[in-house]
Amino acid sequence: MNNKSNIRAVALSGVFTALSTVFMLLSTFMPFTYLWIMIAGFIMAMLYMEVGQKYTACAFVAASILSFLMVPSLLRTIDFAIFYGFYPSVLLPQVLKINSKKKRFLTKLAIFAVSGAAMFYIGIFITGLNAFSAQLLENGQIFLLVIIGITVIGNFGYDYFLSGMTMWYKESLRARFIR
Asked: Is the dihedral of CA 166, 65, 80, 145 positive or negative?
């Protein structure tokens, strides 16, 4: 990259970081909480298309830190940091490099299951429902598997949302806004 490209990449990273943080703030005050978090993650995907992995990863870290500092809901911020922002900015570009559809699907399934379990356990810890978690594991793990299964299905929905929005961005918005 030449100097002009670096300046453009840093400027776009700053603007997209701010936009992502604004949508994280909207998730606190507006209905449809997870829609706003998904849009914040989609902004990271748009940034990846414009400037590449290095700048997007830095912007994701900055947006996560700003969200931790500004967004009152710690759970929403953690969900963004663990999955909704991390997946489109860091993991998805690597997953899309896998040629085999079967391997790509299994990789996504593993990512979604691990992130779902992490979000569940961190949510239990933050909300102070440790007794609930202990009782849950004592009574059997089927409920935990159901929760993770529902999260995996939701994360596949998010992946579908990202692919549709990415196509819309490439075909409609990119030429209008980014020159």
From this structure: positive
